[in-house]
Amino acid sequence: MKYTRITALTAIGVAATLSLTACGSDGSRKNSSSKSSSSSSSSSSNGGSKPEGGSGSGRSQASNAKASSNEDTGAETSANGATTTGKVTFCKTQDLAIDATDAAPDEASGRINITMINRGSTTCSATGFAGVDIKDTDNTSNPIERGPAQPRVTVLKPGDAAVFNLAYDIDNTGNSLSHPTNILVTPPNETHTVSLRWPEGAGEIKGAYTDVQVYPTHTTK
Q1: What are the residues facing 124 on neighbouring strands?
Q2: What is the pLDDT of residue 211?
Q3: What pLDDT shows up at residue 220?
Q4: Are 91 and 125 in contact (CB under 8 A)?
Q5: Beta bridge partners of 214
C-alpha cells in the first residue's frame, strides 16, 4: 500500500510539472507572438511613413531654402535669359507709353527705334527682348527674329525710357515684296500687345520679314 501511494503521488507530481510546462510554453508563445506582431506593426508603420514624411520633408526644406534664397537676393531671371537684381517687377504694357520712329542711319541700313516710357508709379524692369510681329497690307502678321545680342539689365524708374530697335537692309529698287502697315509689340515678359503704325518715311524692307531682326532693350541714359 505504501508503495502504491508513493507511486500515485509521483504520478501526480509529474502531471503537475507537465501542466506547468505546457502553460509556460503557451504563454511564452503568446508573448513571443504578441511581441513579434507589435514589432511588425511598428516596422510597417515606420516603413510606410518614412517615404512620405522623409521625402515630403525634404521637398519642403528644399522649397523653403529656395524661397529663402530668392527673398535674400531678390534676383529675378526673365524668360529672355537676362537677370535683374533687387525686388523689381517687370513693366506692364498698360504702364508703358510706346512709340515707333524711323532712325535709319543711312540709305542702305533700315532701323526703327521703339521707345517705351514708364508711366507707372513704381520702378520696373524692361530687361530682355520684346516680342515683335510686323503686319502686312494683306493682314498677315510675321514674327521677327532676334538679333545676335545679349540682353542688358534695363530698369526704369517712373518717367525713364527704354529703347529697342528693328534692323534690316533697305530695298531701293522699288520692288520690295514687303508692305508693312503696323508693328505689333509685346514688352519683355508680358502678354499684352500694342499695335503701332509703321513709321512714315521708313525705307522699304529688302528681302522678306524673316530678314528683319529685333534687338534687346536698353536705357536711353
Answers
A1: 89, 156
A2: 96
A3: 84
A4: yes
A5: 146, 166
Residue 128 CB coordination number (10 Å): 24
pLDDT band at 8 (very low <50, low <70, confident <90, very high): very low
Grid cell digits, residue 13 = 507530481
**Of 217, 158, 150, which is closest to residue 189 (Cα–Cα)?**
217
Q: How far is CA 164 from CA 14, 81, 128, 151, 154, in A?
A: 107, 17, 10, 11, 11
pLDDT tens column, 124-167: 999 999 999 999 999 999 999 999 999 999 999 999 999 999 99
Q: Which three cell numbers stand for residue 101?
A: 520712329
Task: Give the span between the Cα atoms of 104 and 116, in whole angstroms.
Answer: 19
Is the C-alpha dihedral spanning 91, 97, 100, 106 positive or negative?
negative
Helix, coil or strand: residue 170: strand
